[in-house]
Automatic annotation (TrEMBL):
InterPro entries: Peptidyl-Arg-deiminase_porph. The keyword RNA-binding does not apply. Pfam families: PAD_porph. It comes from Arenimonas soli. This is Agmatine deiminase. PANTHER family: AGMATINE DEIMINASE-RELATED.
Length: 343
């Protein structure tokens, strides 16, 4: 692994969290008021610990977002707005994947296809280049990579181990072998090994099984994952098989991982459609973990699991019930920016 390039883990110090405010031109239009309240709660939680960099599609939206945040008591000194066009608000997948490059940074700009061409994504695919061109990032280089990859599809332990799901990457690149995809990921992301999960999925997830809905590193030797303990649930067999795969994985030191199974929320239905209410879609920030809450009895138990997995960090629930209507949750709409990156 290069000594000059390194892919930092999410729990390392951050300068800010990047997100994009929903508006009537996004898929949130039909339930905009509900999702805006989730964004208010999310930015309020972030800014208790660090700044938020909020993309807005013009001055009118900037004023609207600022007014809503101010009325909720959010410290606007901790919020930085940036005006830019975007198709939607899934910044985990359209935002930059940042490597440390010596004393500076490298912004990796993978091809964003809206999860295999499911939606229009022309403006989202240009987002990283526009953020970089605007000078938002101190001394970062920019590298465009002609390979479809979303930030939600990968996890790193910050020490050269990558975790991903074969279902997602194979769906994006059906003509490439596992060896070819592994080599490309390890080269671009500066990883020394890749751990693949072949099992695990969530109904209502249109990302083709992003790893950030299923299993997440909590430390180089620890993984938090979404479990299912209901034999009558349609997910039971698949998530049990995924749990067995995780138990068989070994750290770089050839030790089993410490595993933290998250509880299973009751089915959330929207007009008969099952929504992907995963507790694994949490966001690690400075001194805290922001946890997606769904108004379910399992919320409290999920918070306790995360407290056990992240000792010393405050666990902050954020109401994400409105987000899963569009098939994502808290981690999906955010992208952490490493310490020192923001100009």
């Amino acid at each position: 692994m290069s000594q000059l390039l390194r892919f930092p883990a999410e729990w390392e110090p951050q300068s800010a969290v990047l997100l994009a405010w929903p508006h009537e031109g996004t898929d949130w239009a039909d339930r905009l008021a509900q999702v805006e309240q989730t964004y208010v709660g999310l930015v309020a939680a972030i800014t208790r610990f660090q700044p938020a960099l909020v993309c807005v599609a013009g001055p009118a939206l900037r004023a609207r977002a600022a007014a809503q945040l101010a009325s909720a008591g959010v410290d606007l000194d901790q919020v930085r707005f940036f005006e830019v066009d975007y198709d939607d608000t899934w910044l985990r997948d359209s935002g930059p994947i940042t490597l440390r490059e010596g004393p500076g940074y490298r912004l990796l700009d993978f091809h964003f296809t809206a999860w295999g061409g499911k939606f229009e994504a022309g403006r989202d695919d240009q987002l990283v280049a526009r953020l970089h061109a605007a000078g938002l990032f101190r001394d970062a280089s920019h590298r465009r990579v002609d390979f479809a990859l979303e930030g939600g599809g990968i996890e790193t332990d910050g020490r050269g181990t990558l975790l991903s799901t074969w279902r997602c990457l194979h769906e994006r690149h059906p003509g490439k072998s596992r060896a070819e995809i592994t080599a490309l990921l390890e080269n671009e992301l500066v990883q020394s090994r890749t751990l693949w999960l072949d099992r695990g999925y969530l109904e209502g997830d249109d990302t083709d099984a992003h790893i950030d809905t299923l299993a997440r590193f909590a430390a180089p030797d620890a993984i938090v994952y979404q479990a299912c303990d209901d034999p009558d649930d349609s997910h039971y067999a698949e998530l049990q098989a995924m749990a067995a795969e995780l138990a068989a994985l070994r750290t770089a030191d050839d030790q089993p991982y410490r595993l933290f199974p998250l509880p299973w929320a009751r089915p959330v239905l929207d007009e008969g459609r099952r929504l992907a209410a995963s507790y694994a879609n949490f966001l690690i920030i400075n001194d805290a973990v922001l946890m997606p809450a769904y108004g379910d009895a399992a919320d409290e138990a999920a918070a306790q699991v995360l407290a056990d997995a992240f000792p010393g960090r405050e666990i902050v629930p954020v109401n994400c019930r409105p987000l899963i209507w569009q098939n994502g949750s808290l981690h999906c709409v955010t992208m952490q920016l490493p310490e020192g990156l923001l100009a």
